[in-house]
Prior knowledge:
This protein is an alpha/beta fold. The chain is built from 11 helices and 11 strands. It has a single domain (3-247), classed as TIM Barrel. The radius of gyration is 20 Å and the shape is globular. It starts with a strand and ends in a 5-residue tail after the last helix. 37% of the residues are buried.
Amino acid sequence: xxxxxxxxxxxxxxxxxxxxxxxxxxxxxxxxxxxxxxxxxxxxxxxxxxxxxxxxxxxxxxxxxxxxxxxxxxxxxxxxxxxxxxxxxxxxxxxxxxxxxxxxxxxxxxxxxxxxxxxxxxxxxxxxxxxxxxxxxxxxxxxxxxxxxxxxxxxxxxxxxxxxxxxxxxxxxxxxxxxxxxxxxxxxxxxxxxxxxxxxxxxxxxxxxxxxxxxxxxxxxxxxxxxxxxxxxxxxxxxxxxxxxxxxxxxxxxxxxxxxxxxxxxxxxxxxxxxxxxxxxxxxxxxxxxxxxxxxxxxxxxxxxxxxxxxxxxxxxxxxxxxxxxxxxxxxxxxxxxxx
Length: 340
């Protein structure tokens, strides 16, 4: 496992994954945060809207993923797990902050395949009583009959900026030096994101680079260890899920990942601009003529950017389309990077 992209169960994210090459999928293990349906007028089953595309992806790619039900109330987690098991793809259940429902705990004990193990996620921005945490961790391992070699430890820092580096490094050091068996965990995954919640601070019509602070943090933390860490990020999406965000119209802005930065081609809201979503054509044309562009053959997303900029697409698409294209590029880019 080279890279863990943290994703929500949303159409754009699924499409980004579905259009990755097998070579890229071999280097990643996606993390899916299940979120409740925000579409009050949805037609058909909400379960089908994510279960079918998710099953298709993992059946075809023959890889596993992480599943996090900590924010999901719509459907029983056990029912979803049983459906996925029947569909014959592997998954690792995430237990957040060692808070696990008794039914899920029993399910893990009796049904979870041993080779998948479990993942335990801690919000690294919180303050923990490590004596209590270690006691609960060891009780959980004893109950499930697993040891640290069957557990992926995920330290999630959420949204970060450069001014917080010292705080994050100190928090990581506390986990490293205090949590039982740190060196023995199957993987230690660092998750963080620095892409802003909205683009209100960027002027329409401009091109701006912002640093990928999550990558910088990961590189700092890796230097403090002998064992390897696994890099995780939220792509070019904000790290904090806001269920209300889908109700607001965003700008038609192109977001492109380079080795060290995000490049933002800031557009206007489609309803307030004469070109509407056609702004993406102008932005893509600018991107493909720049030094940032990795070439049409780099990824599915890059191919779509190239075609859009050259007027080769029958439809420009909408915001979800461009989440798919730019996230597909991002995952391909990061999976190919030397992160250590």
